[in-house]
Write a structure and sequence with these properties.
This protein is an alpha+beta fold. The protein has a single domain (37-157), classed as Beta-Lactamase (2-Layer Sandwich), CATH 3.30.450.150. The chain is 47% helix and 17% strand. The chain has helices at 2-24, 37-53, 82-96, 101-108, 146-157, and strands at residues 59-64, 69-74, 126-131, 134-142. It has a 4-stranded antiparallel beta sheet with strand order 2-1-4-3. Helix 2 crosses helix 5 (146-157). The chain is globular, with a radius of gyration of 22 Å. 38% of the residues are buried. The mean pLDDT is 90.
Amino acid sequence: MKLLTNFVGVAVFSAAAAVMTAQTNEPLALDKKVLSLAAARKIVAASEAEAKARRLGVVIVVVDDTGNIIQLTRMDAAQVASVNVGIGKARTAAIYRRPSKDFEEQIKNGRVAALALADATPLQGGVPVWIGGKVVGAVGVSGDSPQADEEIAIAGAKAIP
């Protein structure tokens, strides 16, 4: 009897798994674009050129789509505290797939619950990097005014067509 019960259990499980797989036809693996080190260096170079044109020293951080750092540059005149802020801005833009400014705006407009978002730095200066309609990473800039930080980040993101 126990053998029959085990057999029926395995058969039911196998049938359910086959039905679920057949019904969904979903792939078991996905192909996705990822930022290369060369792309991250290109983003940093474009951001750094914009910062130099403005005579500013900032921290520039490029992360992948999961928020992990690919490249970080602290220009000579940048304050040390901007390192962690730049990382936070970049990670926010990458994992939430939108500019970090969006969260700053939400808070300014009274949605203080945005302060509770996991791993979010609600400060202007982080922007996503898009390839083929998908976020593949982000760039975060910190060290000057919020507007300047964002404009420098945008200059970097635009380096990737």
